[in-house]
Amino acid sequence: MVRFRHLAAVTTGMTFALILLGVYTAAAGAGLSCGANWPLCNGGVFGLFPANWPSFIEWFHRLVAMITGFMILGTTYAAWRGHKSRRTRLASTVALVVLPVQILLGGATVTTYTALVQVTHHAAALVIFAALVATTVWAYESPDEAHTSSDTAAATTAD
């Protein structure tokens, strides 16, 4: 249970960092540095050594997004595998269900870059973030089995 709480908190933090990085990527105009190529960038599969700073920013955003996506998948798996709270499982599942839509919207921001796509991409990010915040808060609200049993033992000896 404690591991799940930490995983949920780190995943939420990574998602927040990804949103900030996405804002920076958009503000720097780096999303357009790959031309209209997605998921490739100027014909390359991996941008480990990009030609310029905007390309590096775009590739770094994609890398952090991929890592965060796997963390969301892991958090949802852990919620269903070992966590008993129904609402924690539901909240993490919402984040996971919106994730593929968010990935496609991320690709659309590179290929079309319209205001509607940008707003929808950011809205989906906020839905994922809100679901992960709820997952984390509810995970910390859930009683830990070890904590509950020690409280019960302490209450019994106090009587």
From TrEMBL:
Its main location: membrane. It is found in: Membrane. Keywords: Cell membrane, Disulfide bond, Heme biosynthesis, Iron, Membrane, Metal-binding, Oxidoreductase, Transmembrane, Transmembrane helix. Pathway: Porphyrin-containing compound metabolism. The chain crosses the membrane at residues 59-80, 92-116, 122-140. PROSITE patterns: PROKAR_LIPOPROTEIN. One of its GO terms (cellular component) is membrane. Pfam families: COX15-CtaA. One of its GO terms (biological process) is heme A biosynthetic process. GO terms for molecular function: metal ion binding; oxidoreductase activity. The keyword Secreted does not apply. Coiled coil: none annotated. It is a multi-pass membrane protein. InterPro entries: COX15/CtaA_fam, COX15/CtaA_HemeA_synthase. PANTHER family: HEME A SYNTHASE. This is COX15/CtaA family protein. It comes from Halococcus dombrowskii. The lineage of its organism: Archaea, Methanobacteriati, Methanobacteriota, Stenosarchaea group, Halobacteria.
